[in-house]
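Hey, resending since the last one bounced:
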Amino acid sequence: EKESDYFIEYNNVGFSYLKSNELFLKDINFKLKKGQKIGIIGPTGSGKSTIIRLLLRFYDVDCGEILINGKNIKSLDIEEYRNRIGVVLQNDAIMSDTVIENIAFGKEIDLERIKKAAQLACASEFIEKLSEGYQSMISSRGTNLSGGQKQRILLARALYANPEIFILDDSSSALDYKTDAMVRKNISNVFPDAVTFLISSRVTSLMNCDLILVIDEGMVVGLGTHHELLANCDVYQNIYSLQVDKTSRKGGVDNEL
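The structure tokens again:
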């Protein structure tokens, strides 16, 4: 059977948390080729993270299908499949263990690769300043790290997996714009074929994605590039004018990708 032209496809995906007749997500459709980046934006509770949880198979779709390389993800070995995905979720776990163990996260330890992943995640700088560097202990839930440091450790963990798919769910909320842009640039350079999902409430984090999905109340209300959505999607225009017009008046937005 021929491989699909698209690496990831959501075809008429619908999902209900309560398994009631009322679907929470309805008619989600989009297709991504290798190397593409998709941004997902929308109000709180609109279903952004649910779209990702279905890809991770934390839940299965109630209707429609999600395909990877033309194969339904339900037909793939779940463990093998999840190993192809590097994920940073909003409240991911930091363990009470060394920096090394937190980045390897159960995978075989290769110190060179761990350092490389930390470098790409802009984490090596602060790790090397810790009393015992990569052997330093991190306390449970990362209470001895700042928010930005925690996010960088989690990003390094996702990068260490050498994944084909990156899922960054609000993973840069504690990073400054410059670090955020730098990390995303590193991902593009080192993993040119990986597909990246960026879920963010910041328009500036998504402006340079190949495709932006605007979701509201479980439905797609906009799909296109930043410029297309500015021209034809009210929800996106509103978010943009609330965030960016304000920022640009203050001076300067760094949206380099």
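The two ends are 36 Å apart (CA to CA).

Sorry for the duplicate.
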